[in-house]
DNA sequence: CCTAAATCTAGCCGCCGACAGAATAGGCAG
DNA sequence: CTGCCTATTCTGTCGGCGGCTAGATTTAGG
């Protein structure tokens, strides 16, 4: 056939695709422990052993879901950065906003990405964005500031998703706080690695 | 029986205690999906149904482990703070160091604490420590700075544990980086809510 | 020593992930 | 059109799990 893989559907249509989709929604609905290969099969209207042909194991399916989620997250960040003003700091903030927005919209998937998608030179775009804010800084300072930015944003959204921060607050208030956090973060980056004032 | 609960051991000795201990080490060893009520029972040399008497469910045992872990973590933070210089900023840094040290020493337990121990007015000591650094700031600024500090420290240690930050770095280097991060954090707190310079 | 409560064991249920082998369905050679 | 080939899915099975119940065993306290 034309493509390398599964060109024409046989019994199901495209089971691999259906399983990934079912798995993703199942994960978001029932969480972690409710995620079951058999339930994915059920949602795809297929026997309990059918997934085995497409995914060697449960972890294999999770890995694929994480892989796609990771791509989607990167895309969200870049889209948000493009919407921002054409200015280094604004673009960095945009990426961070995209990061948090994706996590808030897909909390379990976000968790999964960080639990499963280990050891990947993640978020290279973030490093670029930070570097653009402090172009004159030394490489190691840029690296440290990237870590700082990432840690701040990641920690904040995680704590918020876990309900440790701003538990009883309005959505409006949380947005304001997030932006204040990002502003403080940018200022710190500028001060630490910034223009030789 | 003097105390309210399980004063003298019966068959086992103190099964409840043994299960918590076995569960904690099992969690650290096999992680999360290897954590099994039956394996805990096995490690305590007891039948598979014995735990049911002490813990209503697997979640119940996890909750207890998380509860104790949380206390231990708080103690670690306070101990580290006491070891620091008698100065607000140093004590805040000390608490953060304790936070990271505990997480690094008990990564799975640390995860568990944050996953299970939801909705608790966590880390009140951190809020106190931050407030002491910026005594003249308004309450809402203190709150924001506490969130900022917590997010920074939490994000950093999580990313480090996941291997996203400083993957190939020496332990020495990581320590230096951590301290640099904390220093930047304290400076930001001072600048944002600090002394009216 | 006897009773009642506390503690543990044995056994069952339904669910799970993984594996083995049978069955189906489309493509294709003849 | 026939018959085979291979990709895909199904049925059936195994051991392990969490949770439950029934019953045995041990201990405390009179």
Q: Please, could you describe this protein's structure?
A:
Two copies of one chain form a homodimer. With 197 residues, chain A is mainly α. In chain A, 72% of the residues lie in helices and 0% in strands. The first copy, chain A, is built from nine helices and no strands. The radius of gyration of chain A is 20 Å and the shape is elongated. The model of chain A is unreliable at 1-9 (pLDDT under 50). The first copy, chain A, binds a DNA duplex (30 and 30 nucleotides) through α3.
What structural category arises from helix and sheet content of chain A?
Answer: mainly alpha
Strand content of chain A: under 5%
Number of helices of chain A: 9
Q: Of all protein chain pairs, which has the greatest interface, and how many residues does each chain bring to it?
A: A-B, 31 and 31 residues
Order of helices and strands of chain A: HHHHHHHHH
Q: What is the C-alpha radius of gyration of chain A, as a whole number of Å?
A: 20 Å
Tell me, what's the shape of chain A? elongated
Quaternary structure type: homodimer
Largest sheet of chain A: none
Question: Helical content of chain A, roughly?
Answer: over 70%
| Residue windows where pLDDT falls under 50 for at least 5 positions of chain A | 1-9
Average pLDDT, all residues of chain A: 89
* Straight-line N-to-C gap of chain A: 64 Å
Number of separate strands of chain A: 0
Blueprint of the fold:
Two copies of one chain form a homodimer.
Chain A: H1 15-34, H2 37-43, H3 51-54, H4 58-83, H5 88-105, H6 107-116, H7 124-133, H8 139-161, H9 171-193
The structure holds a DNA duplex (30 and 30 nucleotides).
